[in-house]
Specification:
mainly alpha
Length: 109
């Protein structure tokens, strides 16, 4: 990806990782300029947010506290990987699910 595209979208990409509020702000900010780098990270964060919400909902209804904790930790590690990628200016998908997030949410961003 072009260096200018990354530089222009880096702040929006970083903001998108500040959970749901940051994700909404980043989506609105990217709506005018349509930066490809920012859109990539917005799609990653949409997937991570939905994953976290799903883990939280399932954990409340199923008494699997240990597994729920591991899944929550897994989600947090994926968030850290995505956040570091945005800070470093890399368009790198989060492990296991990132490519699926890009495919599922290709209309976003």
């Amino acid at each position: 990806m072009e260096n200018t595209t990354v530089n222009e979208g880096k702040n929006i990409a970083i903001i998108s990782y500040l959970w749901i509020i940051g994700l909404i702000i980043a989506f609105v900010m990217n709506n005018d300029k349509k930066n490809a780098f920012a859109a990539f990270h917005i799609r990653q964060m949409v997937g991570l947010t939905l994953l976290s919400l799903a883990i939280g909902i399932v954990s409340r209804f199923v008494d699997l506290s240990f597994i729920g904790s591991l899944l929550g930790l897994f989600s947090f590690v994926l968030w850290i990987i995505g956040f570091i990628g945005a800070i470093q200016g890399e368009e790198k998908s989060v492990p296991l699910l990132g490519d699926m997030f890009q495919d599922w949410f290709k209309g976003i961003g």
